[in-house]
Design brief:
single chain; about 180 residues; alpha/beta; Rossmann fold
Length: about 180
């Protein structure tokens, strides 16, 4: 299957790239110029730099488009889906709800919301744990903050340009 991951350099996207690749998909990651090599290193077969190219207008089609950041919409993305392709997002809004209902009734292409993407079963969690143990699924950490820097951490996340995950250490920085 051909899978496109929008937001491939973010916390969810970095895992999605690795998981899709591990499951045998041809993976295309969408990210900014500064993250192209990082996303490629995670296993993406192709990378689209969103500052230069709109993936919905590039002429490629995908079996799955996973929007990990909520920056596209089903209406935009459906042009890049195969006839039975699925659009998945982690961002719930009024538009996706209407599209989910309509595509369920109409058939063919589908719009789907799922906060986790996986029904948590013991087998699936064991598979993920094995991938981590084997080094095939790695956490990408951008920055680490202490507990008293939580406000700074949120401000950084809100810029929309973090690379991977933010870690909050459960310690408080000591004052000298």
């Amino acid at each position: 299957q051909r899978v496109l991951i929008n937001g491939a350099a973010g916390a969810i996207g970095t895992f999605a790239v690795q998981m899709a690749k591990r499951m045998g998909a041809h993976v295309t990651g969408v990210c900014s110029t500064g993250n192209v090599e990082r996303v490629r290193a995670l296993g993406a077969d192709a990378v689209v730099d969103y500052t230069k190219t709109d993936f919905t207008r590039a002429g490629e089609t995908y079996d799955v488009i996973f929007d990990a950041v909520g920056k596209s919409s089903y209406r935009q993305a459906k042009k890049a889906l195969t006839p039975t392709g699925k659009y998945l997002t982690t961002v719930l809004g009024n538009n996706i709800l209407g599209n989910m209902l309509w595509t369920k009734i109409a058939g063919g292409k589908r719009a789907i919301f799922d906060a986790t993407g996986l029904k948590q079963t013991r087998d699936k969690l064991e598979t993920l744990a094995n991938w981590v143990a084997e080094g095939e699924l790695k956490s990408v950490v951008d920055r680490t903050y202490t507990l008293d820097q939580m406000q700074e951490a949120h401000a950084y996340v809100d810029t929309g340009h973090k690379r991977g995950n933010i870690v909050i250490s459960m310690t408080i920085a000591t004052q000298a």
